[in-house]
Amino acid sequence: MEKNWNILVLNLGSTSSKVAFFQGDKCVSKLERNHDMKELRALKTNEAVLDYYGKIIFDFIDSLDVPMEEMDVIAVRGSGKWGGYQHGAYLLTPEMGEEMAKGRAGHKGLFTSTVIGARLSAKYNIPAYLYDVVPVDELPLIATINGIAGYRRRGGSHTLNCRAVAIKTAKDMGKDFDHSTWIVSHLGGGFTTCIIKDNRIIESYNAEEGSFTPERIGRVPGSF
């Protein structure tokens, strides 16, 4: 008989957060919380950020009929260091979580997902995985060229949502995701528009490259 995995999912964002409990591919329970921007801006320390987002996670865990000891895996929309990531899953170790806790890469939600996911993994001896992290960089050489000699343009996007939407749409349309091309736009606290070809992100444009968004001012142009 195929095992029915118990999966805790952490997807904490800059405008809203989602926490869910899955058994296999069935969502048993979920919580979505919209954030008050004034409350988020008032969080000045990493400890305050962890307390704020942590309450969402731990309140949800306490509401479940299945205890943490019976979870098989933790799936995390978290953050990693820039460079070197392909799409898919990466083991989130306690060491990675504690290294992240010393600083902060990405917005508050990504930071908290990574740190608390790693700490839950260590406490309950459950494997945790980062999945489709923001700094996925699969750009071909031509897409990394820019106007500065010796500087490689880096890839980065709302990888998780863009790929999830493309995969779902391909399934709904009866397309083979591994052999098709998609243009996807994510419009949230930050924006991303990317091209996914044959299951790889071959081009992306995001809020850190100029987009003006509800949460980002974009980059200032070099000439006027």
What is the number of E strands? 9
> Uncertain spans, ≥5 residues at pLDDT below 50?
none
- What is the rounded distance between the termini? 65 Å
Radius of gyration: 18 Å
Largest sheet data: 6 strands, mixed
Observed structural traits:
224 residues; 6 helices; single chain; alpha+beta; 6-stranded mixed sheet
Brief sketch in words of this structure:
The chain has 224 residues and is of the alpha+beta class. Helices cover 30% and strands 25% of the residues.
Descriptive report:
Helix content is 30%, strand content 25%. It is of the alpha+beta class and 224 residues long. The chain has a six-stranded mixed β-sheet with strand order 3-2-1-4-6-5, with helices on one face. It has a three-stranded antiparallel β-sheet with strand order 7-8-9, with helices on one face. The protein is globular, with a radius of gyration of 18 Å. The termini are far apart.
Secondary structure elements and their pairing?
Elements: E1 6-12, E2 16-23, E3 26-34, H1 37-41, H2 46-63, E4 73-76, E5 89-91, H3 94-102, H4 108-124, E6 128-131, H5 141-144, H6 159-173, E7 181-187, E8 191-197, E9 200-206
Parallel strand pairs: 1-4, 4-6
Antiparallel strand pairs: 1-2, 2-3, 5-6, 7-8, 8-9
Helix pairs in contact: 2-4, 3-4
